[in-house]
Amino acid sequence: MRRLWPILGLGMVAVALVLAAPWLLLAPSHDRDWQPVYGRVAQVTPLPDGRVRLSNIRDWSYAPDGQPTAQTWIARDLDPAQLRRVWFVMEPFSKNPAIAHTMLSFEFADGAAYVASVEARREIGEPYSALRAALLPTHEYLWVWTTERDAYGNSTWFTEDALYLYALALTPAEARAILREVLADTADVAANPRWYHTLAANCTNVLARTVNKTRPDAVPLDVAWLLPGYADSFLHRLGYIAPGRDFTTAETAAHITPLIPAAYTAPDPTAFSRRLRAAMAAQDTSATSR
């Protein structure tokens, strides 16, 4: 048996090298024939007055059958001093409760809100495979910035997923620091393409590592890093979501799927975000008064 250990050890090293080789030899790229929703890379330009110009924000509109009716890309000057609140967005997309997509939304004093989402960037005709992306460098990942109207309309009608929007309990300084780090990482990914990995570089743990640059261990390692469907309950346990309220109540108040169709009739993205939050406040008041 002792003679087998060196052979087994060499075999394990060989397997590890075979698995690692594609990740080391293949270079990620922004130059591919991308699906239109991933067609542009968000660009970050610092301005002299402390604001930041964010370009290639997706602001598409969708019909109730899920088809895009307008494919608009916009640019906005963001002022961290005008940041009002950071929101955590949860999008379950499977019957398995462990599976979900997570995002951050940054709400500003004028009511405008922009969603930052780490996504596996796919080429035309390329399906998403979580298993394949865990084994091989299949997709690059990208910080996709959108208006809330685009992100939530896409989820409601195009992918038909549920949505939950949680206000994060952060100080103004913490919120601004997170915005700055997300923008910095957006700029870095735009300059240096990166591979997506189902376990090591997914929508949730890239967010967590980015937030942890603002304060070490702000979001400690947890199973939610690997299984994003548990991310909202994890953040609730940490006190970032609805401190002082039980999670079931917080989750009910955060469920925005039924509110989106009415809000979607708003004339512009900022009006959509304002209308959605007014509906959320009314929904929460109604629930707590029962």
From TrEMBL:
Domain Lnb N-terminal periplasmic: 71-222
Pfam entry (one): Lnb_N
Protein known as: Uncharacterized protein DUF4105
Organism: Rhodovulum adriaticum (Rhodopseudomonas adriatica)
Upper classification of the organism: Bacteria, Pseudomonadati, Pseudomonadota, Alphaproteobacteria, Rhodobacterales
